[in-house]
Amino acid sequence: MIELHNVSKSYPTVAGRKVVIDRLNLVLPWGAKVGVLGRNGAGKSTLLGMISGAVRPDGGQILRRGAISWPLGFAGSFHADLTGAQNVRFVARIYGMDTEAMVAFVQDFAELGEFMDMPLRSYSSGMRARLAFGMSMGVSFDWYLVDEITAVGDTNFRKKSLNAFNTRLADAGLLVTSHSASTIRSYCTSGLVIERGQAWFFPDVEDAIAMHEANMVR
User: Which end of the chain is more exposed for a tag (fewer CB within 10 A), N or C?
Assistant: First the structure.
């Protein structure tokens, strides 16, 4: 379960502080599949960052029960001077996992061959995305936070990735941001709409999509 109590977040701008989340109260039960909708800059990524612990709220309290992923985004950020394997070992140690077992899993899943032992600065953006996705599937979370699902790799790799992701989601909750209503419908049963610092939760994802689409034409 994830609970937010009077959570607020703002950022300084040249025009003054911009409130992106204002006193949000929300309870997400185990296994909820929630699509997070809003305009560009509405605060979707900020919300996922606060839930993950990567972004500190200005006020309020966030209670987390269970293992929560970092905001995945299927791209990731790594230490460019470390090899793929070294980056994987670093993440494995953070989550208390067997480092070599996780390296073996990611190496097999990401299909990077000899590049696993080469520094990240030698990777293409697609190779980094494959490494990031392999790492995210190598850790079993109770909640997955996904900031924009994007296609990774060729057709066979995308199919394998989606199958692995759907398997993980069978026993886990999900919060996912996307500008695609079809993507939200594919993964989510409920929705959260963020607009001008306020947020509305809808048990039926279609109601969330309808509100978001109405907001976008105003």
Answer: C
Least confident of 14-23, 40-49, 83-92, 124-133: 124-133
Block residue for tokens 């494959």 = 130
Look at the chain and report how many structural domains it folds into.
Answer: 2
Instruction: Give the residue ranges of DSSP H helices in the chain.
Output: 44-52, 84-94, 99-110, 125-138, 155-169, 181-187, 205-216
Inside any domain, residue 9: yes
Round to whole Å and give the CA distance between 71 and 74: 9
> How far apart (Å, rounded) are the C-alpha atoms in residues 148 and 197?
20
pTM for the full predicted model = 0.84
Assess if residue 17 is contained within a domain. Answer: yes
Alpha-carbon distance of 155 to 191, in angstroms, equals: 29
- Taking only the tens place, the pLDDT of each residue in 125-149 is 888 888 988 888 898 899 999 887 7
